Design the sequence.
């Protein structure tokens, strides 16, 4: 088939938050930009849908919190309002079959477990502070830490089974992967990148503190609105050819030519494109060792947030699962909404189950946290990100043990005229919306500095 050719100064591949931020900056600097997006929508891992009349909820990225200035500033600029996540009332903990209600910052775990956890967290915090955010592979003990899995470290550094299980739960919820799939070095980097597990997992004072009215995908939709005619959806890039003068990108039906390209995709998606000439060995080795995490997001809707009347916050944690953490994601008015995640091995296991069995397991779990009413929502939604061809999983990609030290330098290093964006390339809030925005800004600055 003969292909039509379209030119631009800069082409951005991927209309997620990162790609759109990069495209807008390049465009504002006076360069002609095109964005090629595989899906028939923008937003990538941001996906908001109307789940009840006038009730728009997030099936992907949702919350922001303190320390995430860039995404906050972007939202304000685009006129997307945020509002606090409901956080009043007692939280629920189910641990070893016992249900507890609590308001303190620390969950009511047995004292020896809390002491064990505190000393482990202190050691992790001390080590994390040594890890340079832009080059974690440079810390003196990087070779050892990168060849040690998080599981091996926690197995040897906690005394009690309770503390080990609690940290396993935290790592799984934080990274949607199992501690035996992650290196200690990467865990330390993430703790440094986010300001610690509490900052990343908490609602009040943490990364779940606010959410966007009308859904987080609005950020992408409004950014795309600032680039009229420049965002071409339904355009999966299959091949990228670089020569002395520029780059040619091939989709099924079209060819595009530009002076420079920003790939705003997660590393595993980058490896679905054919590169001519091939990329550096380091880059190829890195992306082949950076799988996505596994996550299924579940949302249960009720006539009203009934748990509030019982004095509950909607936040629950438990060792039994399959939903190990929940948050009240109810809109300002309308139904009550509980959100939870199946992550890591749990997600993989439940991907294989039937929707009916999955729903039954999730609702039984919500019932244990919040009482029988929770097991009977008026509506139930789920989104398995592993089934999304153009995401391959979520929340984000993580390097396998050993990959950071050997190949980490290839994460952001441009390959000729090809520059890398995407949330996974951000030193701060790596894997989050905040990281996606800062990575888009950095990639745009790289290009503008060379043109
Ligand atoms: C369930 C879930 C919950 C999350 N919760 C939060 C949260 O509460 N807070 C938070 O900050 N973050 C959260 N995240 C992470 C956040 O959503 C991501 O960090 C962010 O959206 C990533 O943006 P991005 O632009 O880097 O990548 P993406 O959003 O993945 O964008 C990449 C784009 O590239 C496109 N693409 C792929 N292949 C091709 C190709 N060959 N050619 C052209 N286009 C292609 C994709 O379709 C996609 O649009 C969550 C993620 C998930 C999945």
Sequence:
């Amino acid at each position: 088939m003969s292909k039509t050719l379209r030119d631009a100064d800069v082409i951005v591949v991927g209309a997620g938050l990162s790609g759109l931020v990069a495209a807008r900056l390049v465009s504002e600097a006076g360069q002609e930009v095109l964005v090629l997006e595989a899906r028939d929508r923008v937003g990538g891992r941001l996906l908001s849908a109307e789940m009840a009349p006038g009730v728009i909820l997030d099936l992907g990225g949702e919350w922001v919190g303190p320390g995430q200035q860039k995404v906050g500033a972007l939202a304000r600029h685009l006129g997307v309002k945020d509002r606090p996540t409901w956080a009043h009332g007692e939280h629920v903990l189910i641990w070893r079959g016992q249900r507890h209600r609590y308001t303190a910052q620390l969950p009511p775990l047995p004292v020896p477990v809390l002491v064990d956890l505190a000393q482990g967290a202190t050691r992790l915090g001390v080590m994390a502070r040594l890890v340079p955010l832009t080059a974690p592979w440079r810390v003196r003990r990087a070779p050892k830490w990168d060849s040690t899995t998080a599981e091996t470290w926690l197995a040897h550094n906690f005394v009690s089974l309770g503390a080990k299980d609690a940290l396993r739960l935290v790592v799984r919820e934080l990274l949607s992967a199992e501690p035996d799939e992650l290196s200690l070095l990467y865990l330390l980097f993430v703790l440094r990148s986010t300001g610690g597990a509490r900052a990343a997992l908490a609602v009040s004072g943490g990364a779940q503190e606010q959410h966007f009215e009308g859904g987080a995908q609005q950020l992408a939709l409004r950014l795309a609105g600032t680039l009229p005619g420049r965002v071409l959806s339904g355009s999966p890039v299959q091949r990228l050819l670089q020569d002395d003068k520029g780059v040619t990108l091939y989709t099924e039906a079209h060819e595009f030519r530009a002076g420079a390209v920003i790939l705003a995709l997660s590393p595993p998606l980058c490896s679905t494109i054919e590169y001519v000439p091939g990329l550096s060995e380091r880059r190829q080795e890195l992306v082949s060792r950076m799988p996505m995490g596994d996550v299924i997001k579940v949302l249960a809707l009720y006539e009203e947030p009934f748990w509030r009347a019982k004095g509950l916050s909607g936040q629950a944690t438990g060792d039994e699962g399959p939903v190990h953490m929940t948050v009240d994601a109810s809109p300002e008015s309308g139904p009550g909404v509980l959100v939870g995640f199946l992550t890591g091995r749990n997600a993989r296991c439940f991907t294989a189950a039937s929707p009916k069995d999955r729903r039954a397991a999730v609702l039984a779990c919500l019932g244990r946290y919040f009482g029988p009413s929770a097991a009977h929502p008026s509506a139930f939604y789920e989104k398995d990100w592993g089934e999304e061809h153009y995401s391959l999983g979520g929340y984000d990609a993580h390097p396998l043990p050993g990959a950071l030290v050997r190949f980490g330098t290839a994460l952001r290093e441009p390959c000729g005229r090809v520059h890398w964006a995407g949330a996974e390339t951000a030193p701060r809030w790596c894997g989050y919306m905040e990281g996606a925005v800062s990575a888009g800004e950095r990639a745009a600055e790289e290009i503008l500095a060379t043109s």
The longest strand covers residues 4-13. The two ends are 34 Å apart (CA to CA). Residues 48-67+77-88+205-214+292-387 form a domain with the Polyamine Oxidase; Chain A, domain 2 fold (CATH 3.90.660.10). DSSP finds 16 helices and 20 strands in the chain.
